[in-house]
């Protein structure tokens, strides 16, 4: 009997050494077919040792295998291996929803499920898994470098956000996905949607799964990039960059030293926002060199945002290297004797360390360049996490496109997997024109709302809604008191400068995950704004008095 034909029927004996006679099921249900009752999987015994919260890993491999015949079942590697702990859901009757990833897509889906009205006893148990203990409002990571926000404002703890909900938060990393909702079911048999292996060793059995793992920075692109460049996509990355900038600033404080040199690779939204923020912070103590493969900045941005950004970059004397690609990054040292750059630290005699970027012309008419920098930030390239989470014996069980994103239906369900949803950077979804949706917070916000509703509809046997993205506009920060906002519903309107900055912060304050956090952040930002305004007024009055 194949696992595909009847995944919850009694399997034929696996090949190889059989189970010992002492391995048996102890069940109060007598002769009931225990393989058709997922709840009974918690009552395995190996010999006289109970395994109330786990099963041997080989049995899980059997459950989700998509092979055929006896070869589709895997024998446990060792009869004496310790069973993996099975996550204990509080209620054995209510549906179990496992959400992987606590970014905008994952957290807001969990909160959406919590806010819906559920008939009868259908309200699901929701589990949110993330490798960090904080939710990160990523569009405002740049304000950490400018000092406008505190960590708690844009990176609150999950436990704080979820304390008034029934959502269960688990800090862990995902190791392996084993969905089984693609297998053919016997009519009338209640089955699970699959299992998730976590890095801690815990196994989570679920009925419904939401993939919202996002994407990781792909930094190992050219020789030296992984060793010497820093990405800027997580809170840890932002804190690392802040630490590096502080160290450079302190090392040059009160000394006649050359200016700090920061190189930024990529001039999409992230690169432009970083360049503007760091240049404003360094002022006359440093220079920013921005490199982009294309000859324009923010090629996918609305014209109003692009023009506002270019105006700010030029006004801050940021050196733009457009039409170049980075060939390699290497480390050199300044020789104290000759002032020349050498590759050996001993030969330099304790000189300052520098990074050298070799640029290759990507456009005709340009010459190759060599740049020096104290700090290199890498903002281009990302990769999906789903590919490395697929089971090795079924590497294509979750359909992926060429970019490693999950192929989904219009309802956000994974193709061929009716109990699995994919949203955010993990999902490959196109707009009506056939273009991939951008990997930004606005898309994840809207997908989370639809994913929550469609989970409600699926659990309650109602029709699911097709996802339709509504582009409301785009925003970007351009400094401590500067931003650009282009609203899609008002053609040609772009808010710039302090007005754009205030509007952007207001929108993001309203987008914070919970009402309680919105109030806290709003009060904090209002107080900071009042103090800054008072300080600016005091400075202006002092200047007037001094000049009179």
Automatic annotation (TrEMBL):
<comment type="similarity">
    <text>Belongs to the NADH dehydrogenase family.</text>
</comment>
<dbReference type="GO" id="GO:0042372">
    <property type="term" value="P:phylloquinone biosynthetic process"/>
</dbReference>
<dbReference type="Pfam" id="PF07992">
    <property type="entry name" value="Pyr_redox_2"/>
</dbReference>
<dbReference type="InterPro" id="IPR036188">
    <property type="entry name" value="FAD/NAD-bd_sf"/>
</dbReference>
<dbReference type="GO" id="GO:0009507">
    <property type="term" value="C:chloroplast"/>
</dbReference>
<keyword id="KW-0521">NADP</keyword>
<dbReference type="GO" id="GO:0003955">
    <property type="term" value="F:NAD(P)H dehydrogenase (quinone) activity"/>
</dbReference>
<keyword id="KW-0274">FAD</keyword>
<dbReference type="InterPro" id="IPR051169">
    <property type="entry name" value="NADH-Q_oxidoreductase"/>
</dbReference>
<keyword id="KW-0560">Oxidoreductase</keyword>
<dbReference type="GO" id="GO:0019646">
    <property type="term" value="P:aerobic electron transport chain"/>
</dbReference>
<keyword id="KW-0285">Flavoprotein</keyword>
<protein>
    <recommendedName>
        <fullName>demethylphylloquinone reductase</fullName>
        <ecNumber>1.6.5.12</ecNumber>
    </recommendedName>
</protein>
<dbReference type="InterPro" id="IPR023753">
    <property type="entry name" value="FAD/NAD-binding_dom"/>
</dbReference>
<feature type="domain" description="FAD/NAD(P)-binding">
    <location>
        <begin position="96"/>
        <end position="448"/>
    </location>
</feature>
């Amino acid at each position: 009997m194949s696992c595909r034909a009847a995944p919850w029927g009694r399997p034929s004996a696996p090949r190889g050494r059989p189970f010992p006679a002492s391995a048996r099921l102890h069940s109060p249900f007598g002769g009931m077919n225990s393989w058709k009752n997922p709840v009974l999987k918690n009552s395995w015994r190996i010999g006289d040792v109970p395994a109330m919260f786990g099963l041997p890993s080989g049995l899980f491999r059997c459950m989700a295998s998509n092979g055929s015949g006896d070869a589709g079942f895997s024998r446990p590697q060792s009869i004496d291996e310790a069973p993996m702990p099975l996550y204990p859901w509080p209620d054995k009757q209510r549906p179990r929803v496992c959400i992987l990833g606590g970014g905008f897509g994952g957290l807001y889906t969990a909160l959406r499920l919590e806010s819906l009205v559920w008939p009868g006893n259908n309200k699901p148990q929701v589990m949110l898994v993330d490798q960090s203990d904080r939710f990160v409002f990523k569009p405002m990571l740049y304000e950490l470098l400018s000092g406008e926000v505190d960590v708690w404002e844009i990176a609150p703890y999950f436990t704080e956000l979820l304390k008034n909900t029934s959502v269960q938060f688990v800090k862990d990393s995902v190791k392996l996905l084993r969905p089984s909702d693609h297998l053919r079911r016997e009519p009338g048999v209640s089955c699970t949607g699959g299992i998730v292996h976590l890095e801690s060793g815990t196994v989570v059995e679920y009925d419904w799964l939401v993939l919202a793992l996002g994407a990781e920075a792909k930094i190992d692109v050219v020789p030296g990039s992984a060793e010497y460049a820093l990405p800027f996509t997580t809170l840890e990355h932002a804190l690392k960059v802040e630490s590096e900038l502080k160290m450079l600033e302190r090392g040059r404080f009160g000394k006649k030293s050359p200016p700090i040199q920061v190189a930024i690779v990529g001039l999409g939204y992230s690169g432009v926002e970083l360049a503007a923020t760091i240049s404003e912070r360094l002022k006359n103590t440093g220079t920013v060199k921005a490199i982009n493969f294309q000859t324009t900045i923010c090629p996918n941005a609305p014209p109003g945002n692009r023009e506002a950004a270019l105006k700010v970059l030029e006004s801050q004397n940021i050196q733009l290297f457009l039409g170049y690609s980075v060939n390699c990054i290497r480390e050199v040292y300044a020789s104290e004797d000759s002032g020349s750059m050498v590759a050996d630290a001993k030969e330099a005699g304790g000189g300052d360390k520098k990074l050298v970027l070799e640029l290759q012309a990507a456009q005709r008419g340009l010459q190759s360049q060599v740049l020096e920098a104290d700090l290199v930030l890498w903002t281009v390239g990302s990769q999906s996490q789903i590919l490395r989470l697929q089971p090795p014996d079924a590497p294509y069980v979750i359909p992926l496109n060429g970019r490693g994103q999950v192929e989904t239906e219009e309802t956000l369900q994974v193709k061929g997997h009716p109990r699995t949803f994919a949203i955010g950077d993990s999902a490959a979804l196109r707009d009506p024109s056939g273009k991939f949706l951008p990997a930004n917070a606005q898309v994840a916000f809207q997908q989370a709302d639809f994913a929550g509703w469609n989970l409600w509809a699926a659990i309650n046997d109602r029709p699911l809604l097709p996802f339709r993205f509504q582009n409301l506009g785009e925003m970007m920060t351009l400094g401590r008191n500067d931003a650009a906002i282009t609203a899609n519903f008002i053609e040609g309107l772009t808010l710039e400068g302090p007005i754009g900055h205030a509007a952007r912060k207001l929108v993001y304050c309203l987008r914070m995950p919970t009402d309680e956090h919105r109030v806290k952040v709003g009060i904090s930002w209002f107080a900071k704004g009042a103090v800054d305004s008072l300080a600016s007024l005091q400075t202006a009055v002092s200047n007037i008095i001094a000049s009179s």
